[in-house]
Amino acid sequence: MSKQTILNKYLEKRSLIKNAHNGHHKIGCVIFDKSKYCVLCFGYNQYNIGLNFLSIHAEHHAVNKLRYSKKRKKVDVIIFRICNKGETILLGAPCENCQRIMREGIKKKGYTLNRVYYTNKMSETFSFIKKINLK
Fold it and tell me: Which domains does the chain have, with CATH numbers?
């Protein structure tokens, strides 16, 4: 399974999950085993959680759902953002806090973060998956 296949599958899956706040955009994060292209977990943005009405970003949700591993496997991450109707791919670059959470959280769970990919605005002239290296 390629990155593109994983992205297409989870774009559709995320478009079916309703936003609690009726927002304009839907964001998803897929963490997968780099060697096998096997999806380990999928997270999405959530709003109005708990008594304090907190929100959680898709990256944080995915890292929380990731199971602990005894073997140090390399993982890649795909972050995507689509409009509420699920028709348009938008910029899905992770914020500074999410970059830190992915870097530290994935390491604590026993994995090695290899690469992070995120969607760019869909266009005919350039690819809509970009790569970011977290330090």
Answer: 3-132 (3.40.140.10)
